[in-house]
Amino acid sequence: MQLCAFLVGCWEQMSLAVWVVGRAVRARREHETRAVRQVLTDERLRIARDLHDGVAHSLSLITVQASVALHVGDERSGEARSALTVIEDTSREAARELRRMLGLLRAVDDDPQDAAQLEPWGRWW
Which long-range contacts (CB under 8 A, 24 or more apart) does 108-111 make? Predict the structure, then answer.
């Protein structure tokens, strides 16, 4: 009878130990999942700020150059043409960079593991 009680006690302790280890493993995995999600969220916020900064800079430059072109258009056609060329170049570059950033974001959505291999984020102005 004592052997039976001993075995039941051992079984209960082993069950408890397995349960505790299982809970610890689950808690660690949940923590790691939250940490990965936070890193991805932080990176998306950083990208959004960079994207906003780049688009805002380009639009500001386009606005200034358009104002110059309107102001000097009739009197100094060379300056107006130069301003319009800057507007064209700036808007094309901004659109190209926007497409590149969106492509990188899509790549992260498709396969987060491969996203680490993509080119580093950089300023575009």
Answer: 108/40, 108/43
Arithmetic mean of pLDDT over the chain: 80
**Per-residue model confidence as pLDDT tens digits over 59-99:** 888 888 888 888 887 888 888 888 888 889 988 888 888 88
What long-range pairs does 63-70 form, CB within 8 A, spacing at least 24?
Answer: 65/90
Amino acid at 24: A
Token pair belonging to 73? 């258009």
Q: 10 or 39: which carries more pLDDT confidence? A: 39
The Cα 118–Cα 108 span in angstroms is: 9
Spatial distance between the Cα atoms of 106 and 67, rounded to a whole number of angstroms = 36
55, 98 Cβ separation under 8 angstroms: yes
Query: Measured between alpha carbons, how far is 25 from 49 in angstroms, rounded to an integer?
Result: 36
d(CA 45, CA 43): 5
* % of the chain surpassing 70 pLDDT: 84
